[in-house]
Amino acid sequence: MDEELREFGRRWAEAERRGDAAALDRLLTEDFHGVGPRGFVIGRDEWLERYSDDWLIHDSFDWRPVQVRRYGDAAVANGVQSQQSTYDGRDVDGHFRVTQLLVHDAYGWRLACIHLSPIAEPPRVDQPEHA
Q1: HEC string of 59-117?
Q2: DUF4440 domain spans which residues (predicted)?
Q3: pLDDT 10s digits, 62-71
């Protein structure tokens, strides 16, 4: 996998873990949208606002890309996001299968879309992923 894409994944996960809306602001495209684990869709501003006034707090946040495929100035990353978090005081811990659509523009790699699907059981580290 391209080192730039690996680095993007590290920066994105660290910004999410810290709740760093300013860093995320630089990592998301202007027309970014996210599909949450229950099917809701939120835009860029709403995604960033989750961190205002400490609504979303991560005690831990881990992103392990399973596969990244590059297509010119676009890439698709599939991985597992594991988190211990609260949102508005409610427990939102979980493990999610995640698909990210990344695009390369004048600002470098940026996240255009993310889709999360809950995983009933966390994947075992010693068990290989299947495509």
Answers
A1: EEEEEEEEEEEEECCEEEEEEEEEEEEEECCEECCEEEEEEEEEEEECCEEEEEEEEEE
A2: 6-111
A3: 998 779 999 9
User: Tens digits of per-residue pLDDT, 32-69?
Assistant: 999 998 899 999 999 999 988 788 898 999 998 779 99
Counting Cβ atoms within 10 Å, is residue 11 exposed (0-12), middle (13-18) or buried (19+)? middle
Residue written as tokens 């290989």?
128
Q: How many C-alpha atoms does 39 have within 13 Å on its Cβ side?
A: 0
Read off the CATH number of the domain in which 7 is found: 3.10.450.50
- Domain annotation covers residue 98: yes
Segments forming the whole domain that contains residue 66: 3-118
pTM: 0.86
Of 131, 116, 126, give the one whose Cα is nearest residue 35. Answer: 116
Place of tokens 């075992």: 124
| Ramachandran angles phi, psi of 106, nearest 5° | -60, -20
**Does any domain span residue 126?**
no
